[in-house]
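ZP: hey, is the flavin-adenine dinucleotide complex queued? I don't see it on the tracker
AM: it wasn't, my bad. submitting now with these inputs:
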Amino acid sequence: MSEPRTDAKICGMGHSMKRKEDPRFIRGQGRYIDDFVLPGMLYMDIVRSPHAHARIKKIDTTRALKIPGVLAVIDGPTLAKYNLHWMPTISADTQMVLPIDEVMYQAQEVCAVIATERYIAADGVDAVEVEYEPLPVMVDPHKSLAPGAPVLRKDKEGKKDNLAFHWQAGDKADAERALAASDVVISENVYLPRIHVASMETCGCIADFDTAQGKLTVYMTTQAPHAVRTVLALVAGHVGLSEERIRVVSPDIGGGFGGKVPVYPGYVVATFARDYHMKVELGAKKDGTMTSLKIKTVADHGYSNASANPSKFPAGLFSICTGSYDLKHAFCEVDAAYTHKPPGGVAYRCSFRVTEAVHAIERATDALAQKLNMDPAELRMKNFIKPEQFPYKSVLGWEYDSGNYGVALKKAMDIIGYDSLRSEQAEKRKKGELMGIGISSFTEIVGAGPSRDFDILGIKMFDSAEIRVHPTGKAIARFGTKSQGQGHETTYAQIVAEELGIPAAHIQVEEGDTDTAPYGLGTYASRSTPTSGAAAALASRKIRDKAKKIAAHLLEVSEQDLEWEPGKFFVKGAPQMAKTIQECAFAAYTNHPQGMEAGLEAVHYYDPPNLTFPFGSYICVVDIDRGTGDVKVRRFVAVDDCGNIINPMIVEGQIHGGLTQGIGPALYEEISYDDEGNISGGSFMDYYVPTALETPHWETDKTTTPSPHHPFGAKGVGESATVGAPPAIANAVVDALRHLGVTHLDIPITPEKVWTILKNKGVAE
Amino acid sequence: MIPAAFDYHRPDTLDEALKLLKKHGDDAKVLSGGMSLLPMLKLRLASFAHLVDIGRIPGLDTLKEEKGTLRIGAMVRQVALERSDLIRTKYPILADAIPLIADPLVRNRGTIGGNVANGDPGNDQPAIMLALGATFVARGSKERSIPASQFYKGLYSTALAPGEILTEIRIPAPPPKSGGAYAKLKRKTGDFAVAAAAVQLTLGKNGAIERAGIGLTNAGLTPVEAVDAAKYLAGKMPDEKTIAEAAKMAAAKSSPSADRRGSVEYKKEMARVLTARALRKAVQRAGGN
Ligand SMILES: Cc1cc2nc3c(=O)[nH]c(=O)nc-3n(C[C@H](O)[C@H](O)[C@H](O)COP(=O)(O)OP(=O)(O)OC[C@H]3O[C@@H](n4cnc5c(N)ncnc54)[C@H](O)[C@@H]3O)c2cc1C
């Protein structure tokens, strides 16, 4: 779809409508969790462990309780009385709410101080004295998985090792045979470190128990309010919380990126992870035809597997790791280890582990090009799944809905001037200057369900829309998802506008209140447009069908005689005989046909038949300072394909933000641990989030390959750029150092890492 | 990020401020821009029962050249320096550095007095003061002057006595054929230096270096003055070999510690690379080759 079908007044799909939510955000009138002040509200602050592993010998609260305004200090034993000291993770593992005797990672919640004011709560935390006996710490996931390692999760009866789970996809023997038969094989150890989502707004929660009504209202920064309600009912049912008396309200959210899917002990954010140690082997024939891929991963999940992944996919959709290439043989496996680190394995704007998968295959592809002495663009072109192969069944089991990879890469190459950059690079190399060009041609996989494969804790991953058209022709639309900045209030309104012809300005979108919104699994993994967006279209179409009956009644013609154009029905051949959607809406409440139910509303629960497979090609040019090792991104071209676009401006915004969150991990961000399990990179003083000044000028463009199964041909786009950008940058840096024999660098690529290579090769300034 | 309770005082005169400091002794701390002090309090790395805000005291915002001396009041904010034509045209060493200090929000509040009095070797302006040969004017029971080279005693420890307030910075106005430069490597905007070098020099008639001052940021527990390197340069032609040698000598004076910005080896090497770069630029600005 190129040109919008509706006019600017209706503002349906394809219009760069300004975001309806922005006036309140820009004016500081958004309502975030911190803006809620309830009568008699109390505040909680948390005492955290300075040790990664220790026995709690004593918690002395005397001094804290003497502070006026400190009302209570709650610890594990207190919770144990109500059997609330353990909680499930979204991945059906368990985790302590508060510890009884042992802490298992640094910064673990030890006890909570309840006070009348936020400041007093902080003073209370300062005054609690905890005595610890430090215990041996396990930080290395490889050692943790080695035979004979001490068992970390002694709480799990019969647990004899530290394996959180093993997962695999594909035929190992077949992939290995094919590797052995390959002319060339590259093998690289690729590590993706822990990083933090670093959303502008932190996590927070207010619980309000109304004793008169026996109802609990929870205001929470959650990306999945309905799931939280159900989990609360399941976890705390034994203390009398019943689902109809729980209301979860998710107000305006200042960024989520996956960090606001899980529920935390005390609902405070822990650290977030990738922490994938991948061994990637890729084989090819002499002519560059890829033959086989094998990836073995050790995933460091910290003390508990708290990933937000669908039940059947403990390593997410990692098996998309064959990427954009027509690979006939592949195998991947993940061993997840427990260590004394914060529970991790959670997502970060990564579409369920697709960032890891894309990084592995895109880095390996460049390493292969290097080994074959072939241009990386040419190698990609040669191995892309061809347009005529779609729908394409991948060897690891996915059915790619659509794609046209060569066109996207060609477009990116044309925009950036690929050939002249290669000549420039050759010139520079002669002069000893370091410049690199990196490509990433990624394939994303987003929009879970279908529900036959996807659930979280048993709840199927459909999503929903409920639309009510008011008598005056305006509408309210509610959804099971929850925007954290994605612009749902605008895009959903545009979908309804497209389908019903009601101006988007007149469609009020609401999400996040479980008392009013239809049930759904929430917003993450780029699933809102593929699921709730589709539901919006299908619910609208139900409404249009009914409106058509009403129009026929008003015009006294048969339904078959009516045609639709956005906003009105008219009689075939007599366009002056018409009824607008607004007139139909009014009639639905004032003059509906006998025998028809009054009103004009519909609900749709959409269960997608398949995922959607957005893709893109990114090309990045970097220059390296030979004195300092500092990497400057000179240019970055991003060509994205997310099928039909609802709002081009919002898509561009998603890509800009995603690319920026791509250079973050590529060049700056990392949370690491020393041997004692001490966190470094635990605050913004040493966790380097790029600012506008570090951000290059993004050059974006698109191709359009609609999803064949989505009601309006759209695909998710929220994470394409975070998934696609890091390997483009890493590939560019390695490319700049290729002639020195460098084949791989782990991210974040810090100046010192680069400088160390330059020094070792004797070319540093 | 929630500080312990404190009392906030905002005296209108210097004498009143000094009186408050005297009265509360160790429990009191001077507050200027607050951009270093407040984070320390919020992280509960420090706590003071009394903060004495000197922001309303008149006369601490001088910024002018007078009788061969540049006078900068302690309360002059970074943003004012950043916008000053005098600084831009005559003190490029400062003009280089200021846009690299923190971010615009911090520079709107942060003061030069706070930057040099903080005693954090990560601050950028102390090294510049060393290179410029600045003098700090302090007021306690009486007024005294302290050369920058004698000001820094240890980590967060300076020559200021408890109860003393830094009122003004005095910098000798550079003679003709002078040039200065500041070269800083940092991980990102808002981060302190991995390493940084401040150079101020004057060329003689024959093009040789007459006088040089070199200061290093984040190269030890205090700002480092590379005295040997400066001495070595005096009287020499500023050719590549001389610059390289001086940079090596300066780096030898640095004793950084390892952190997320880099290892000791890397930081020392960066001190060398950046000193050489600042020297080249300073020479160029002085009208040399
Ligand atoms: C995110 C961030 C990044 C930063 N990055 C940099 C950077 O890259 N480079 C850099 O140089 N700085 C950086 N800073 C620090 C910043 O420049 C501060 O403004 C500066 O260090 C202190 O100046 P201030 O006016 O804010 O002083 P304050 O924070 O008010 O005071 C700092 C200290 O100096 C004392 N003090 C202040 N004024 C006087 C006086 N007149 N007499 C006696 N004692 C006094 C105070 O008692 C206190 O101990 C950064 C700060 C932040 C928050």
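AM: back. Chain A has a mean pLDDT of 94.
ZP: great, adding it to the tracker
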